[in-house]
Design a protein that fits this description.
Blueprint lengths: L1 H14 L2 E6 L4 H6 L2 E3 L1 H10 L4 E5 L2 H10 L4 E3 L15 H10 L4 E5 L4 H5 L3 E3 L4 H6 L5 E5 L2 H10 L4 E4 L5 H4 L3 H10 L4 E4 L5 H4 L4 E2 L2 H10 L4 E5 L4 H8 L4 E3 L14 H10 L8 H17 L2
Parallel strand pairs: 1-2, 1-3, 3-4, 5-6, 5-7, 7-8, 9-10, 9-11, 11-12
Helix pairs in contact: 1-14, 3-4, 4-15, 12-13
The structure holds 1,3-dihydroxyacetonephosphate (13P) and iron/sulfur cluster (SF4).
Length: about 300
């Protein structure tokens, strides 16, 4: 069955001149069918420069929308149309505009995990892998950062000379991990290094041997000489970690699942391509404004 679907998807991909992108949190079979698998920043760069006419984005809505904002002439498909990111919905453009009035001198940096409307009223986007670089490359001292208070708090510690005004949003998946869970894993697997995504709370980040994006966690786990690691981010990353490192052991809290990232199956990819359905559309006025923030990310994040 999987083999039939895979063959059909590969055939349709050629027929429709499509490229398939998948985030590391996708289920293994979707990662395996993809042309490119990566973290948000890497996938955004691939989407921006793609040669194909169609981009099939296996991830959540803000990722597919970002691809459309950057490549307006391409058809962008989101195979699971209902896959959203709860954190992105924790910030609205109208509330952000009010905050901007309170801090007229601040630059607005929005995490790519945000709606197109929020991007349209922000100065620059960032992802977890380039946030530090971007904030360092902004001249202004005062920065409104949204929606993730955890990533924002992590960056604030690294740039104490800046004043970061943090939004009260978070990732429901990363925010629900408790110190006790990590302590229990550490006790069970003594000597294992703890690799943490910056969307986790401060008490979890404080337990980390390394903090980074999904791509950076995979790189660290691959290049570091230790043979066991506790992975504190969505369990989808275990697929690539285990594939690249068959002789190492990776352990993750078993409740680290993003239900939205798990909504895409091979059948959804097949149906989206076959019927060219779940097409991302964005009003041109707002797209142009949101493009500005995403383009600034690619300029400042280099
Ligand atoms: P990355 O930028 O590390 O891929 O993270 C995306 C995301 O949604 C994390 O929850
Ligand atoms: Fe959004 Fe969190 Fe899921 Fe990432 S893991 S897509 S931030 S809900």
């Amino acid at each position: 069955m999987i083999q039939d679907l895979t063959t059909e998807i590969l055939r349709l991909k050629e027929e429709k001149d499509a490229v398939i992108l998948a985030h590391y949190y996708q289920v293994p079979e979707v990662q395996e069918i993809a042309d490119y698998v990566g973290d948000s920043y890497y996938l955004s760069k691939i989407a921006k420069d793609a040669k194909q006419n169609t981009i099939v984005f296996c991830g959540v809505r803000f990722m597919a929308e970002s691809a459309k904002i950057l490549s307006p002439n391409k058809t962008v498909l989101l195979p699971a149309a209902e896959a959203g990111c709860p954190m992105a919905n924790m910030a609205s453009a109208s509330a952000l505009l009010k905050m901007k009035e309170e801090y007229p001198n601040a630059k607005v940096v929005c995490y790519i995990n945000s709606t197109t409307e929020v991007k349209a009223v922000s100065d620059v986007c960032c992802t977890s892998s380039n946030a530090l670089n971007i904030i360092n490359n902004i001249e202004e001292e005062e920065i409104i950062f949204l929606p993730d208070k955890n990533l924002g708090g992590h960056i604030q510690k690294l740039v104490p000379h800046k004043k970061m005004i943090l939004w009260d949003g978070c990732c429901v998946t990363h925010n629900k991990i408790y110190k006790k869970q990590i302590e229990a894993l550490k006790e069970f697997y003594p000597g294992a290094k703890v690799l943490v995504h910056p969307e986790c709370t401060e008490e979890i980040r404080d337990m980390a041997d390394f903090i980074g994006s999904t791509g950076e966690i995979i790189k660290f786990g691959t290049e570091d000489s230790s043979d066991k690691f506790i992975i504190v981010t969505e369990i989808g990353v275990l697929h690539e970690l285990e594939k690249r490192n068959p002789n190492k052991k990776f352990y993750a809290p078993d409740n680290m699942v993003c239900p939205n990232m798990k909504k895409t199956g091979l059948e959804d990819v097949y149906n989206a391509l076959k019927e060219m359905k779940n097409v991302i559309t964005i009003d041109e006025d707002i797209r142009v404004k949101a493009y500005n923030a995403l383009n600034n990310m690619h300029l400042l994040g280099r």
